[in-house]
Amino acid sequence: MTAQTIDGKAHADGLGARISGAIPSFREQTGRPPGLAVVLVGTDPASEVYVSSKGRMARKLGMASFEHILPEATTQQQLLDLIAQLNADDSVDGILVQLPLPAHLDSLPVIEAIDPAKDVDGLHPSSAGRLVSGLPGLVSCTPLGCLMLLRSQLGNLSGLDAVVVGRSILVGKPMAQLLLAENCTVSMAHSRTRDLPGKIRQADIVVAAAGQAEMIKGDWIKPGATVIDVGTSRIVRDGRKTLVGDVEFASACGVAGAITPVPGGVGPMTIMCLMHNTLLAACRRKA
Ligand code: GUN
């Protein structure tokens, strides 16, 4: 069997077209575009790339992008002051603080300072609590993108066995909640899980978000399963830097029914779900 490759870029392009199509009527009603503020502290090269691509995509779709690039030496209070200013700014609908923050800053109080109505990253405890409670709110972009891909691939997910590998607040925990809300039977696996291959072998859906390059092998996967690979690790293969996921793609392709590639799978959906959340937050704020 050769797995179908799930084209995340094509799905993201489709979602982007729907978002940009909705923006003119938002502008007509409010006299302004939806606005996304992205905050970066320091000069981490990967974070700089993420932040500039988020800003570029917002502008491409017709949103306003406010990029706040702060020096490494920024204090906790200065960062909290900026969040307060963005909370009060009516032209800002979404606030994202790029993580990880430099080691001297404490990310949790910063996330808690964001107005939950503008929490387009879905990281505020209020957003996380609303997700668990089944209340409408903003859901973290990566798990939301994974869910959209799964729904489009499989239709109704009800009753399927799903395993989520990784328990971060950014991906693993909200992903498990979203799958539970779809009536999947959900297992969460992590670094202390015993017999990970055995757990994965039982799953119709595997969401791999452990951050370990190619840790999940093809012969761990149930034949025909749908595999969503959130991992992005840079490794050197044959003397060349290569981006790989948490799943060993070549061997998994021989077993899975469908699989997301890295790159070109979950990544484009994450950024487009940020745009989706920004438009959603903007519409809810104007309502
Ligand atoms: N760093 C890596 N991914 C993300 C994300 O989705 N949100 C934030 N805030 N930081 C990140």
From TrEMBL:
GO biological process terms on file: L-histidine biosynthetic process; methionine biosynthetic process; purine nucleotide biosynthetic process; tetrahydrofolate interconversion
UniProt-listed Pfam families: THF_DHG_CYH (PF00763), THF_DHG_CYH_C (PF02882)
GO molecular function terms attached to this record: methenyltetrahydrofolate cyclohydrolase activity; methylenetetrahydrofolate dehydrogenase (NADP+) activity
Keywords carried by this UniProt record: Amino-acid biosynthesis, Histidine biosynthesis, Hydrolase, Methionine biosynthesis, Multifunctional enzyme, NADP, One-carbon metabolism, Oxidoreductase, Purine biosynthesis
Catalysed reactions, semicolon-separated: (6R)-5,10-methenyltetrahydrofolate + H2O = (6R)-10-formyltetrahydrofolate + H(+); (6R)-5,10-methylene-5,6,7,8-tetrahydrofolate + NADP(+) = (6R)-5,10-methenyltetrahydrofolate + NADPH
InterPro entries from the UniProt entry: Aminoacid_DH-like_N_sf (IPR046346), NAD(P)-bd_dom_sf (IPR036291), THF_DH/CycHdrlase (IPR000672), THF_DH/CycHdrlase_cat_dom (IPR020630), THF_DH/CycHdrlase_CS (IPR020867), THF_DH/CycHdrlase_NAD-bd_dom (IPR020631)
CDD domains per the UniProt record, alphabetical: NAD_bind_m-THF_DH_Cyclohyd
Binding annotation for NADP(+): 166-168, 232
Domain of life: Bacteria
Residue intervals of the Tetrahydrofolate dehydrogenase/cyclohydrolase catalytic domain: 6-121
Assembly information from the UniProt record: Homodimer.
Stated role: Catalyzes the oxidation of 5,10-methylenetetrahydrofolate to 5,10-methenyltetrahydrofolate and then the hydrolysis of 5,10-methenyltetrahydrofolate to 10-formyltetrahydrofolate.
Entry similarity comment: Belongs to the tetrahydrofolate dehydrogenase/cyclohydrolase family.
Name of this chain's protein: Bifunctional protein FolD
UniProt source species: Paracoccus versutus
Taxonomic path: Bacteria, Pseudomonadati, Pseudomonadota, Alphaproteobacteria, Rhodobacterales
